[in-house]
Amino acid sequence: MQNFLESFTLKTLSRPTTTTQDVDLDLSDDSDADEKKPIEDDQETLLDLSVKYPDYDNTGSKTYEKACRKFDVVPSSKITRKMDSDKETTLDLKHYGLDSKGTMAVAMAMVVNTTLTKLNLKGNNIGESGMLYIQVMMSENTTITSLDISENNLKSFGAKSIGMMLHDNKFLRELNIGGNGFTDLDAPFLTKKIEEHMALHYLNLSHNLFGDLSGNSFEHMIAENVSLEELDLSWNQFRIIGAKKIASGLKENDHLKIVNASWNGYDDDGGAAFGDVLANNKYLIELDISCCRIGPEGFGKVMKGLKSNDTLEVLKIGKNNIPDSAVETAVDLLLTLDASTFKLECLDLSDVMLTGKSQERLAELKEPFPELEIIHGYTDSYGKRRMVGFGDMGQEALLCLKEYLEECNMTVTELFSRFDEDGSNSVDYDEFRQGIRDEGIPLSSEQVDHLIKYIDIDGDGDIDFSELVLKIKEITKKRAEEVAQRDAESAKRRR
Question: What is the value of pTM for the model shown?
């Protein structure tokens, strides 16, 4: 195997739709190559690269060290230790600062290694070259079953490369490619190969830029795939059309058990489409459509879908515009259902504030459905109830503003400069309100009022640019923590 790696040159595509080039895996040492001291892993002893290694490398660690010398990369003792251990199955390098060359070295080593089954390269700026080497490595590796290359901004090149990787590798069971800037134009390169993949059980496509234009691609992928059990499409840009396409696919799917389609913009019509899913799909056990601009009409259609459903255990539909009247109507509907066939164990209405009367109505469900947990009101990142305040509603309004910026590909600086005509880096409340209206940002007057109170930290009557930036950073961090918690819960379920 060592001689194989020292002489072998893998053929692949440098640009997946254009020309072919060689990915050079020649690990021959240059006689005058400078050896670098490896990165310390905590207080570990530094690796000694001057020793003479055996010709046969059955873990990939020696291949990794040679690749580091070849690419002029400082080797990491953590990586070699993980590769050499016969007890380790996971190589977790998220946010490890690998960049493209470091990723290339790891990829070459993983061609050899046969003990590690999980590889996490999240947030490493792996670049096109790194993605290319990952693609080639995965075409050779048959032991990695879980791969995380999320938050690497891979864009169109990465989408095409991942599609080719899935075509060649039939052993992968878990794939996280969220946060890579994939757009509607990239969707066909991914969805067709995912549709055909027979081993993939978990797929995370969250935090990308997929929208209604790619709806058909996702409809076919969901309807035709026969292996996926968990799918995450949260934090994309699907609207009503996209919701209907996703729902259409789910109606035909008989394998998916957990679907997270939250943080999109379905409105009531999209909510109704998911209600139709619940009425017809007999396999889903968890559905998350939180924060999707679903109103009372859409919520009502979703709840009506439960009348014909005897499999769903968890329904997350919080952070939507659900008034007390809609909740009370839902209680009336649930009370008519047969408790012996009703499987719902959790109805999550997080961030939906209810009056005392509505809470009393919810309490009526305890007797017929003693196993049903209903979450409502504002919650912290640990799921504990807390009272609503201006900050909470202001946070939701700020999230809408942040989403608007992302959809328009606009920076905070660009937006604020349009509000700030005199260039003072500060606007009064009236200027801020007028700016929101002029930009067409979808916030009501009440939401804008809460947003102002939330942003104006010092309470001086003006919105400073620095205050807006600080609050956006705070809310981004908070939501990232929520996502991490949800991902951890999801991973725990898969285990």
Answer: 0.77
